[in-house]
């Protein structure tokens, strides 16, 4: 770990991995510290230059009195990139760290590559909830609210199975400076990015915990639904998913971060326009394009206009029956074709990450 100065203020950071590898920022949760990533960092640093840092008001970084803002916390992260002369970095954020990541993509889109947003939301909780938490922290400190926090952060089964891992995270929580925690709560209370994130165009993976009471899955699903092309992965965890399911979290993030870049569509030749696509409603309803309907009606009106001899008209009366029969057969066959209007499903199964890569 080392200290770096950003705008005259000290931040605690740690860099791991090849200096020539793509940079990956890891941003921790409210009341956390960079150590929350300890069990993932060894495997991630095999592919990336991993930059971990203690957020303002947390760990060993500056803990000045508030108020803080999410935009200000995002500027801290961009300031770290500037100080380290890093042009661009991917982002993995947990809870508060993922909300800061959303703000960083909005404030400095060219500086952020792909983003993993875990156990988070675009707007979280109510002002009353955050004000009560600020009061409790100032009255009792981290030790006084640690028990209730642990119940929200981890499932009972994980607490029983991995007590040492839970203790390490909760020790960092208890050590969080009171003013730093309270000021970060104020930043979370005041932020609402629900509309702003619609403009994000970064490749994004959203991870939710199926048993997360702090950031319920529906809140993360909303983030994934409004960021164009974002993917959603659900893990069977509570709030601190990268600790509770190391393998599942690592598997999802590595597949996403190392996937090939999407192939760009070829540009259209000058003077040409893109073909018109059917609307989603029309595809789901199985309706033909609107332009074809008038053509059929016009043909039906023209037939009666010509008066033919009685014998020929009788002969012609049988023709529509045959064409109607053919048309009926064609419709029947069409309905039997599988997947006619189905969209492609989710990606294939995630690649398996060897357990030997994980730090025990």
List the helices and strands and how they pair.
Blueprint: E1 2-6, E2 9-16, E3 23-27, H1 41-44, E4 49-53, H2 70-83, E5 89-94, H3 96-107, E6 112-118, H4 127-153, H5 156-161, H6 163-175, H7 178-190, E7 204-209, H8 217-226, E8 231-235, H9 241-244, H10 246-258, H11 280-285, H12 292-302, H13 310-336
Parallel strand pairs: 3-4, 3-5, 5-6, 6-7, 7-8
Antiparallel strand pairs: 1-2, 2-4
Helix pairs in contact: 2-3, 4-6, 4-7
Q: What descriptors fit this protein?
A:
360 residues, 8 strands, 13% strand, disordered C terminus, hydrolase, AB_hydrolase_fold
Brief summary of the model shown:
Residues 267-360 are annotated as: Disordered. This is Alpha/beta hydrolase fold protein. Residues 265-360 have low confidence and may be disordered.
